[in-house]
Specification:
There is one protein chain. This protein is an all-alpha fold. The protein has one domain. 79% of the residues lie in helices and 0% in strands. It is built from 7 helices and no strands.
Length: 158
């Protein structure tokens, strides 16, 4: 096999992995957000659950941790393909390296996928914990009146 064929296959794999990473990121984000806000957008499901309402933020927390691991692993695969592609192209000779002469350049030189995966995990984990605290602070799990539940869920967002 010649280098152009390998470069073409690596480029196709790189495009697939890149689109897969971001599609997974968006799918997981949407799922976690919907799980976290379900008690607020559908208050009628809150009443019969009682204290089981805390399953929403806890599930979102667990899913965010698992998805962080998954996104990190996907990024590692993507990075390996990217490195192989750049090696075939002799990328270091084609494109100059970013200077790391000041703090700003060091910050923007950090690989986006690695920081995105970590930010995903930290952000959604913190959001789930905050959601747990909000649900604990407002006595949703003891309310038996749908109108009052609706009023409280609207007041949280205003």
């Amino acid at each position: 096999m010649n280098d152009s064929y390998i470069a073409e296959r690596l480029w196709e794999d790189l495009k697939f992995r890149q689109s897969h990473y971001w599609a997974s990121f968006h799918r997981f984000s949407l799922a976690i957000i919907l799980i976290d806000i379900a008690p607020y957008i559908r208050p009628e499901i809150v009443e019969p659950l009682g204290k089981m309402i805390f399953i929403f933020p806890l599930t979102a927390l667990v899913i965010s941790i698992v998805c962080t691991w998954y996104l990190g692993a996907e990024y590692q695969r993507l990075d390996m393909v990217r490195a192989a592609y750049q090696k075939i192209l002799d990328y270091d000779k084609l494109v100059p390296k970013m200077p790391l002469d000041n703090k700003w350049n060091k910050i923007v030189a950090i690989r986006m996928g690695a920081t995105t995966s970590v930010a995903f995990g930290v952000g959604f984990s913190v959001a789930s914990v905050v959601n747990f605290v909000v649900l604990w602070s407002y006595p949703f799990h003891t309310i038996n009146n749908h109108a009052l539940v609706r009023e409280l869920s609207v007041n949280i967002w205003t």
